[in-house]
Write a structure and sequence with these properties.
Elements lengths: L3 E3 L1 H11 L10 H8 L2 E2 L9 H10 L5 H9 L4 E6 L8 E6 L7 H5 L6 H8 L1 H14 L2 E2 L21 H11 L3 E7 L2 E6 H4 L9 H16 L1 E3 H4 L4 E5 L6 E3 L11 E4 L10 H8 L21 E6 L1 E11 L4 E9 L5 H18 L5
């Protein structure tokens, strides 16, 4: 098949529109998550929890975090799953639509692959049964309310070392036996999956499920590197890029009107750093793990989208103790025009208003 030829600005607009970051905003949280496939969960809340910030960036200030919590805990239209996107990445917590659960259950039932994880799980089979029995009798529970009866401790060089209960619960979530029922603050509550997930889910065999996930992923991205979405969509070439691309054919030749948006560092528009560099000529690195003196843009800098370009980074934090949204710097990757500067400032004011904090 002959590859489509796309100008770089056309490719950018396809990506922005697909991620629901154009002026045509979505109006409904559930519809948004179904289209994006997930909202990433991350404990860092320098501005706001990542899932909430991603939702606000698209839905605007009518969005309230309580809507997300109700969808997960009361309506069960969304669920939280910490699992691997692929064999090369570590497990990441995502909030997904319950209607997509059937696309994951077959792979979950075979998890983990032959590895140290499987060895640890098999060595702790009595512990696994104890955890399931405890949840069956008293769930949902916080991890601290589940006794540690492990026979072999979890060994790690990181913070998870000897976190046996949490490791077992997360493994059982990945296997589809346990589910995150909700949260109390930042702490997850756990219960049997059969009491959290909807009944009557049609399980799609993994080979077909993977194909469908690739198609859905491309629809959410609009355009993606071929290595990340398999054979989904159509092959494409982007002017000035030597990479192989795949594009969603339904995303072509659609009108585009841009807007200004402040993005989470975990936003999928910028998540693939190679894609971001190739399409937007935009360099970004989350610097919260760097010493302060080595940071160029700030602890939790928010990429700034204006029209069809990524134009800078906002170094700001929601300082609840001080009672202010503290803006330390606005880094301009390209010199802002008067109109761009005004639009960025208006979006900062909008974010601060949504947070209920004055700008300082």
């Amino acid at each position: 098949m002959t590859a489509l030829r796309l100008e770089r600005d056309e490719a950018r607009r396809i990506a922005i529109r697909a991620q629901r970051l154009s002026a045509d905003r979505p109006a409904d949280l559930l519809e948004l998550v179904r289209h994006l496939m997930f909202l990433q969960v991350d404990p860092t809340a320098a501005v706001a929890p990542s899932a909430d910030l991603i939702a606000w960036t698209r839905l605007g200030s009518a969005y309230r975090p309580e809507q997300l919590q109700e969808a997960i805990e009361r309506d069960r239209t969304l669920f939280e799953l910490k699992a691997q996107e692929d064999a090369k990445t570590p497990p990441i917590a995502m909030i997904r639509p319950a209607s997509d659960l059937g696309l994951y259950l077959d792979a979950m039932s075979a998890w983990p692959p032959a590895s140290g994880w499987r060895t640890w799980l098999e060595a702790n089979e009595p512990f696994r049964r104890d955890v399931l029995a405890r949840l069956r009798d008293a769930g949902p529970l916080l991890s601290r309310d589940v006794p540690d009866t492990s026979l072999v401790p979890w060994v790690s060089t990181g913070w998870t070392h000897n976190q046996n209960v949490t490791r077992m619960l997360e493994f059982l979530v990945a296997r589809g036996e346990v589910a995150t029922s909700g949260r109390i603050g930042r702490q997850r509550t756990w219960d049997l999956a059969e009491r959290v997930y909807p009944s009557g889910i049609d399980v799609v065999p993994e080979a077909e499920a993977k194909r469908l996930r690739d198609v859905r992923r491309l629809q959410a991205l609009g355009i993606a590197r071929a290595s990340t979405v398999g054979d989904a969509g159509e092959p494409a070439e982007v002017d000035g890029s030597a990479l192989e691309w795949r594009v969603d054919p339904d995303a072509l030749d659609r009108p585009f009107t841009g807007r200004t948006a402040l993005l989470s560092p975990f936003d999928r528009l910028i998540h693939d750093r190679i894609r971001t560099q190739e399409l937007f000529d935009f360099e970004y690195l989350l610097e919260m793990y760097k010493p302060a003196a080595q940071r160029r843009w700030g602890y939790f800098a928010l990429p700034i989208l204006h029209d069809d370009r990524l134009v800078g980074k906002l170094d700001a934090v929601a300082d609840r103790k001080r009672g202010a949204f503290v803006v330390s710097a606005i880094h301009e990757d390209v010199p802002f025009t008067t109109a761009t500067a005004a639009a960025v400032r208006a979006e900062i004011d909008e974010l601060a208003g949504w947070l209920g904090l004055p700008v300082a």
